[in-house]
Amino acid sequence: MLPENLNEHATAAALEAFDANAVVTAQFDRGELTVEIAPEKIVSVCGFLKYDQGFVRLSTVTGVDWYPAEPRFEVVYHLHSLDRNERLRLKCRLPGGDPEIDSVTEVWRGANWFERETFDLFGVRFRNHPDLRRIMLPDHWEGHPLRKDYSITGDRV
Predict the structure, then answer these.
(1) Which of 52, 88, 103, 127 is deepest in the core (most CB within 10 A)?
(2) Which of 6, 80, 74 is nearest to 50 (CA)?
(3) Cα angle vertex 119, ends 116, 123, to 5°?
(4) Torsion, CA 3, CA 12, CA 16, CA 79, rounded to 10
(5) pLDDT per residue as tens digits for the range 136-157
(6) Domain ranges of the chain
């Protein structure tokens, strides 16, 4: 649900009109809109934003580990409308036990490597990803080094 002060923001209002249940919360800070999306709605929201709102560029997908808080993980998507030069940040909160979210590679093919990197470093699984495997670390590597509970001592080989 949008806060009252964002009802006048065109992109926020369009997103709320598209699917009010998709918007958990939103804020406008330092000239950029951030919208928290219900994780199960991420693919439909991204499709709407790309094809109906002109956010044709996905500049990154990354993760944040809020350990020990729960929900522990955030998956963050940075979008860009080239026509309007407008940037938009989407966030989805995921539980620490088994962080999973649908892949947005069907919307932006470029999400492929971003999602693989987020999987490799944070352990977030992207359902329906065409090739979800490590991208930075060797295949035999144990763990995900950007998790806050990852041990920084001991052998890694």
Answers:
(1) 103
(2) 80
(3) 170
(4) -130
(5) 999 999 999 999 999 887 665 5
(6) 4-100
